[in-house]
Amino acid sequence: MKKEVRKKMLELRNKIPQDLKTRKDEKIALKFIEFLKERHIKSVLLYASFGSEVDTWRIFEYCKKLSIKTAFPKVKEKILEIYWVKERSELTKGYKSILEPCNAQKAQLEDVEVIAVPGLAFDKNCFRIGYGGGFYDKLLCRKKGIAAGLAYEEQIIDKLPVELHDVKVDLIITDERVINCV
Fold it and tell me: Which residues does the record give as ATP binding sites (predicted)?
């Protein structure tokens, strides 16, 4: 069941025209930054967006301007380790050619106030389906901060097939709304 959802949602996301995607990315970035400002957030974990994922580079630039400490994940033996990153040049291609920190200072998850979470699909109860590696489920089990899923409105469905190891995010920020599950 999850496999079909993954395939369908990836196709759907890949079909969003580039000019529309750019506008949607801008809306999501602005909502995310507003969320950080309202709560006086000082540290975030971003993912290095690739392919048709919600773009995080605009968010990274905002965070730098606002002096919000930013970490990025690196895959190490089936788990995500996180590192503080000040410049995009501190990232290099890693797991599945996704940009990962290199020569960066290791961060602790408890020092991160907000985690931006990627996904292929989210439901209205804040469950998500990623690419199937379980990396974010393992990370979210240990989190102290707020987990915010970033998604295009097209990626929101009524109900996902959920398994015991699946971990919800606290909210989902789309180009059209914020779904709060806390």
Answer: 2-6, 128-136
